[in-house]
Amino acid sequence: MINIPKGTKDVLPKDAAKWRFIEDTARKTAADFNVKEIRTPVFEHTEVFARGVGDTTDIVNKEMYTFLDKGGRSITLKPEGTSAVVRSFIENGLYNETMPAKLFYITPCFRYERPQAGRLREFHQFGVEFFGSESADTDAEIILLAKTFLERVGIKELELRLNSIGCKSCRAEYNAALKAYLKEHEEGLCPLCRERMEKNPLRVLDCKDEGCKKITAGAPRILDYLCGDCRAHFEKVQSLLTACGVKYTVDPDIVRGLDYYTRTVFEFVSSAIGAQGTVCGGGRYDSLVESMGGPPTCGAGFGLGVERLLLLMENLGVAFPGERKAEVYFAPMGESAYAQAFRLVYELRRKGVAAETDHAGRSLKAQMKYADKIGAKNVIVLGESELESGEAEVKRMADGSKTKVKLEEIGEFF
Ligand code: ATP
Ligand code: MG
Questions:
Q1: Does 178 contact ligand 1 (Cβ within 6 A)?
Q2: What's 269's domain CATH number?
C-alpha cells in the first residue's frame, strides 16, 4: 500500500461538505465586503518568499519546500499567500486600477513543519489583502471581515488580540532598546533567540520557549515607543472596533511571525484547540510592496487556517449544514424498467433535480434499504404494471404519502 505523505490529509467525501461550507461562506463574506478573488500559482520563484516573507523568519529559514526544476530554477511551493499576491499585484500593474484593491484568496500552503494537531505540511488559507489605503479604517475593516466570517461559520467566542508594532522609525528606536535589554539577559535565552536578538529582536517576543518567555515578560514594550502617528493610528483602529461593538485585548506580545508587518498586528485565538490556538493572523504591511519592487503602496491583510478552523468547529460541536440529498430514487424491477429508470434519472438530473437509481440489479428490498441510506426524499418503484399504464406512485419517505404521476410528466413533478 502507498501512503499519503506525512503532514498531508485527504478530504474524504464525508468531510467535503464541511470544506464547501467554509469556502462558500468565505466567498460570500468577501463579496459582502466588496472583496474580489485573486488566484496565483501554487509555486513561485523562491525569491518571492525570500524577499516577501523575509529571511530572518522560520518560514524562509526552515519550512519552505524549495527545489530546482529541470531548468535549474529555484522554485518554492507557496508557504503563505501574501507574498505571491504582492508579486502578482506588482507584475500586473494592479496599482494602476481603482484603489483600494481589495483581494481575497483560498489557497493551499506548504510548510515543512513537525506535523501535529492543527499543524500540517499542506494546509489551506483563506486570506485577504487590501492595497492602497493607509487609513485605520482598512485595518478595522479586515478585522471585521474575519470576525463576520468566523461568526457565520458558527464561531462566536474567539479572542481578538491586537497590537501595534510601529513603523520603520519608531521600531528602530524600540529595537535598540529591546536588543540592549535582551543582551543583559542573554544567558537565559534559547540558542535560536540569541541569534534572533541580533538580526530581528522583535522575533524573540514570539518565542514559545519558557526561559525566553520569562525574560521577555520584563522587556520594554513596543507600545511605549510608538511615534505620534503610529499611536494615533492604533487608537483609531481601536475606536472603530469599539464603535462596532467588537471586543479585543491589546497584547504587546503579538508580533507575528513574518518580517513584513508594520503598525497593526492581530490574531484570533482559541483555547479550544490546544497549543496551535491561532486560527487567524494578520496586520498591516506598508513597506512590503515597495520592498518587492513595486511603487510605495500600503497594505493590510490576514491569513486564516482552514484546517485549524475545522478543528475548532469540530471541538466546539458547531453544526455543519448537511449534504444535498437525492430528491428521488427510482427502484426499477426488470430489464425494461431499468432502461426506463436510467433515462428518467438522466432527464431529471439535466433539469437540476438530484436523482438516483440502481445499476446492480438488486432486489426491491435491497434497493429500498439503499434509498433510505442515501436519504432519498422520494422513491418511485418501476415495474411491469407501471410501464404498462405509464403511471407510477411517488412515495414521500418523510410521511409515506403517495401521489400518482404520469411517467411522461415526471419532469414537471419535481
Ligand atoms: P504558528 O505560530 O501557529 O506557527 P504562524 O504565525 O506560522 O502560526 P501564519 O503564517 O500567520 O501562521 O499563518 C496564518 C494561519 O495559517 C495561522 O494562524 C494558522 O491558522 C494557519 N497555519 C499556519 N501554519 C500552519 C500549519 N503548518 N498547518 C496548519 N495551519 C497553519
Ligand atoms: Mg508557523
A1: no
A2: 3.30.930.10
